[in-house]
Design brief:
single chain, mainly alpha, 14 helices, 79% helix, globular
Amino acid sequence: MRRPALLFALLATAVCVLFIADLAVGSVALAPHEVWQALTGGSTDATTRDIVLNIRLLKALTALLAGAALAAAGLQMQTLFRNPLAGPYVLGVSSGAGLGVALFLLGAPLLDVASHAFVRSLGIAGAAWIGAAAVLAVVMAVSRRIKDIMVILILGMMLGSGIGSVVEILQFLSNETALKSFVVWTMGSLGDVTGPQLALLAPAVAAGLVLSVAVIKPLNLLLLGENYARTMGLNIQRTRTLIFGSTVLLAGSVTAFCGPVGFIGLAVPHLVRMLFRSADHRILMPGTMLAGAGLLLVCDLTAKLLALPINSITALMGIPVVIVVVVRNRSFF
């Protein structure tokens, strides 16, 4: 057990260092001691305190929550579907959230609410949640009748494709201003989350992570196949419901507030498996949460330095990882 303990200590330390670095790096560079004084209420000027507490701290906390949430959701999906290319959006959760946001953003000008920032913010989050929950409700209803998890996986992919087509039609019919707003949302962003939004995002992600921890034992049983898990007394339907609920809380909430941030949920679980050399979810789940938070902080730092959308950075970092994993490993579980 020495190796996992050492790796957990290193990951936790790396996340702390990256968190402080994320607070220090930006258009206005700050020294670590300035960041520390701003966080602890020490002697520092008002501008520095405002930059750290009201802008960068919110963004860094969002990166922590979003990274842990997407990575944990990805690990659950890969184990549940026994598919190394499954991710947190495999059930169409992201597509459903995107449809909800598209309906709101592209319809907001018609409803004359696009100019009201508070209503706009709540509308985007609410629309994404409703869209994600609607897709999940369809998948869960089907899962009660169909025992083959691969059929449910295909259903989620088809729902995602169909919803994507509807979104494209909405984009084609929308005006230029509404279309620009939606395109910006699709690029993903950690910096648009406000304090009140973070107060909603944090408990939603926390609830999803608690569910992720609660299904650690069932996930270990599912590694050996659903038939074996049933013989061990596992309630498959209840387990699916818990995992699906956790996924919509984690992926749906992050998508609502940050946009569709990709590849974190797909790549991080593979990195953690290789790092810890284990398939035990008692090790993988906390390791994945830490690694996901750290990797998204790295992506945010890179995005700041290069002035690029966060989704572009996560894709550039995630795609090579997935390619290497697919090429080097023939058996994932």
